[in-house]
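User: My instructor asked us to take a sequence, write out its structure as tokens, and then describe one feature of it. I'm not sure where to start. Here is the sequence I was given:
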Amino acid sequence: MASTPPQISCRAYAKINLGLRVTGKRADGYHEICTVFHRIEPFDDIVLRPSEGITVHTSDPLVPSDEANICHAAALMLRELLDAGTGVRIDITKRVPVGAGLGGGSADAAAVLRSLPELWGKAAGEDDLRALALRLGSDVPFFLGDDSALGGGRGEVLEYFRLDVPFAILLCAPPVQVPTRWAYSRIAPRPATGEDLRSILLRGMSDPLLLREELVNDFEPPVFLEHPVIRSIKESMIRDGALYASMSGSGSSVYGFFHDTEAAGLAGAPLESLNFRTFITPPHFRV
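Assistant: Let's start with the prediction itself. The structure tokens for your sequence are:
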């Protein structure tokens, strides 16, 4: 009987931004930000199999299945770093909505960086993986860790910490894409003041009113003005019982905190009726 070729399966979870402040403009053209990255449902399934070359296959036609895919770049960089004389077939079953500010592509690339050395029988140092991740994109380094993280710089300066969210998180992704470059062009940076985001969140887990008062996303005003449908999603969640709701990142997804999954499901029903994609992350969720 023929043996089954070795393979590695992994999950790449989406992230949301819990608060996002744009605090400055850098000389290299990037912006300084302050945010907290936090993983939620949904996730992409990734399967890595040995191959002569590097190929990518995705279930979503909106995601490139060639050299333009960020996972192809991740595998190419790793092969050069590890001097691996082999390739990989990367199969991605997409569940994380594309272009919704949820980091789906970045999470996929990080999963490849973390798992591919094992498939090739190689070892890669954490510093090397982090350097490759940063070359791939500002969001990619976060996904190399396992906990939530306070993000500074352009998102790559990370301080991981455990954030236990006791609420069900309803995520809604409308069929709208907000270009990141456009969103940043509408922002006037302002220096961070007051309590830091990590402290606000840790206290806010037992006091949601604090989140409503202190946790802000600087991208909401310009994005809501340009895309009223995104504002309407946030308003719908609050009207239907969200303890706190916000747009994630520069859009277009919106999330809300609810007492439990039942309440989140009831709030998600009218959004689903509009053909918006919704997902529920249970309380105390951890990857």
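For the description part of your assignment, you could build on this observation: The chain is about 30% helix and 30% strand. Try explaining in your own words what that tells you about the chain.
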